[in-house]
Design goal:
Blueprint lengths: L1 H36 L1 H13 L1 H27 L2 E3 L12 H13 L5 E6 L6 H21 L7 E7 L10 H7 L1 E6 L1
Parallel strand pairs: 2-3
Antiparallel strand pairs: 1-4, 2-4
């Protein structure tokens, strides 16, 4: 019996360590692009202004592209605002890194924006457990955003547990849509 408990404890420790690695990878892979975009338009505009008419047009194109990228990011994040989770988990899956990175870039670029991250669960589990799990899911997304340079003051984590389902139903398809964290502008 002790051997079974030991194997279970080691398995649990391995899962915890595997889950802890994903936020660190987000920080390492996206720290530079968030910082490098801010100074580029300023340098491009300064170089274009001194180069004459052709340089000014190129600088205008560069600045317009930056603005368009911001608009495209805003349009994309208007659609992609949901991070889905596995059953009984609050680990942000790697497939949602681009979504979180896009929100981080938008929030870092505009420090006046505020976002509420709402954590949700499916109907399985008790009310208090689901509220706690929803909170952990929201906080996991907030933690990922702060690792990418977003100020904590711009973010708020709130849990609704199972109270606001995205889809009604008692099957895996409905449950999968309800295990989520939603990013909403305030």
């Amino acid at each position: 019996m002790k051997r079974v408990h030991g194997v279970l404890a080691l398995s649990l420790a391995a899962l915890v360590l595997a889950g802890c690695s994903s936020p660190v990878k987000l920080d390492d892979s996206a720290g530079a692009p968030v910082e490098s975009r801010t100074p580029q338009p300023v340098g491009a505009a300064g170089a274009g202004a001194g180069a004459g008419g052709a340089g000014t047009a190129a600088a205008g194109q560069s600045q317009v592209a930056s603005v368009d990228l911001g608009k495209n990011d805003a349009a994309a994040t208007a659609i992609d605002r949901i991070v889905y989770f596995d059953f009984d988990s609050y680990i942000v899956k790697p497939e949602f890194r681009p979504l979180i990175e896009a929100h981080a870039k938008r929030l870092v670029a505009n420090r006046n924006l505020r976002v509420v991250v709402e954590g949700h669960t499916d109907e399985r589990g008790g009310r208090e457990y689901n509220l706690a799990l929803g909170q952990r899911r929201a906080e996991a997304v907030v933690r990922s955003l702060t690792l990418l340079g977003v100020n904590e003051g711009q973010l708020e984590a709130v849990s609704f547990g199972e109270e606001r389902p995205a889809v009604t139903g008692s099957n895996e398809e409905a449950w999968a849509k309800n295990r989520r964290a939603e990013l909403k502008d305030r």
